[in-house]
Known about the structure:
mainly beta
Amino acid sequence: xxxxxxxxxxxxxxxxxxxxxxxxxxxxxxxxxxxxxxxxxxxxxxxxxxxxxxxxxxxxxxxxxxxxxxxxxxxxxxxxxxxxxxxxxxxxxxxxxxxxxxxxxxxxxxxxxxxxxxxxxxxxxxxxxxxxxxxxxxxxxxxxxxxxxxxxxxxxxxxx
Length: 160
């Protein structure tokens, strides 16, 4: 397991559709996935995670409103943040390129071992996000039951 600790953020983003943006700091950028139903601590759930473009590190703590007509237009809160470590031996960038990245999260809402797995079917950007059955696992845990920003304590509605 890697001893290198990096930052992660999950932003709750109401654009055309509600989704959660999972972003991992890696090699000078935020490697990113849109997770329509959000990350969960429920180990029985396999969530779709759509790989999107990398974001600049400066976007890490963005919270606010992206204007209508702009890409990603809508409101964004910092739903969770913390640190992550690669959960396996070797280079996490190589694991990402190989299509299976094990990450240990230490956030304010999320904790424990998550795995991102490239599905290899259909859309090349489709991945699965799952939580392992570890000491942080919580059957039935729903991200929508935890709507407040860890940065400001506000909800998406309170940004307006």
